[in-house]
Design a protein that fits this description.
CATH architecture of the largest domain: 3-Layer(aba) Sandwich
Radius of gyration: 19 Å
Order of helices and strands: EHEHEHEHEHHHHHHH
Distance between the termini: 23 Å
Number of strands: 5
Shape: globular
CATH topology of the largest domain: Rossmann fold
Number of helices: 11
Number of domains: 2
């Protein structure tokens, strides 16, 4: 077994921290070297533990994720860790600032733990650490695009069929296009109503509001008639599928991320 990837988890949600700790500690190549529930605790741990990677919440008490990022960037003596930032919808302006500060990858809450662990390995695998001054406004978080021989069109279709979205409803095509668009450009998740829905609407000669309704209707149908085991396999880590349906954006984000990971490892 090679050198373990040293990870710090920083999030004010103690249940989430415990869940991450339990899951990641089971991975042979990963080790949690610290857990923090606010930004100041996180900064202390980062300095003492010198982690390879930080799972960092964007919004925390005392010092938020942006403040932690600024301190990391200002400390030139420290080897810069990779940073996965946890973010939620409604935080687009903060996410943009975080991108400017050199975040390597964003994961939208709720998320799939298997995807997270794959992303950790992707980011830390044979990647030289960049000095803080290399991160500028032109930097963008890592996004694996549709390459490496994976036919994303086929994979999207297969995935939607497994989930139980009927192909004859309009939302089927809207979701399919939305997922493929987000795989190619993850920043669209920060502009769902301003760019993603209008882009799809233009293609199908309809209104953005109809795209939104069509997607919501298709998700509702999937939850009514879909296979519980399949839904649990795809969404199980991120939500209690018996009690809640994902929002349009959560649904698109999760499936796009799964495809991105598949295209990276294929």
């Amino acid at each position: 077994m090679g050198k373990k990837i040293k990870i710090i988890v920083a999030d004010d949600n103690r249940n989430l921290c415990q869940m991450l700790q339990n899951y990641l500690q089971e991975q042979e190549d990963l080790i949690i070297v610290g857990v923090a529930n606010n930004g100041l605790e996180a900064w202390e741990l980062i300095q003492t533990q010198e982690p390879d990677l930080i799972i960092l919440d964007l919004v925390m008490p005392n010092l938020d994720g942006l403040g932690v990022l600024e301190r990391i960037n200002n400390r030139t003596t420290m080897t810069r860790p990779k940073i996965i930032m946890l973010t939620a919808f409604g935080q687009e302006s903060l996410t943009h600032q975080a991108m400017m500060l050199g975040v390597d990858y964003f994961i939208l809450k709720p998320f799939d733990l298997d995807i997270l662990s794959k992303r950790i390995r992707t980011l830390t695998q044979d990647m030289p650490t960049a000095a803080p001054e290399q991160f500028s406004s032109s930097s963008s978080p890592i996004v694996s695009t549709a390459g490496n021989g994976l036919n994303l069109n086929v994979e999207v279709t297969t995935m939607m069929h497994q989930i139980g979205i009927p192909a004859h409803v309009k939302g089927y095509q809207y979701i399919r296009d939305a997922i493929l668009m987000v795989v190619e450009d993850v920043s669209l998740l920060g502009a769902v109503t301003k760019e993603l829905y209008p882009g799809i609407a233009k293609k199908f000669d309809t209104a953005p509001s109809r795209v939104e309704r069509g997607i919501r209707h298709a998700i509702e149908l999937a939850w009514e008639r879909g296979h519980t085991d399949t839904l649990k396999r795809i969404f199980g880590y991120s939500m209690n599928i018996e009690r809640q349906k994902p929002t349009n954006s959560e649904f698109i984000a999760l499936l796009a991320d799964k495809l991105r990971v598949m295209s990276k490892v294929s």
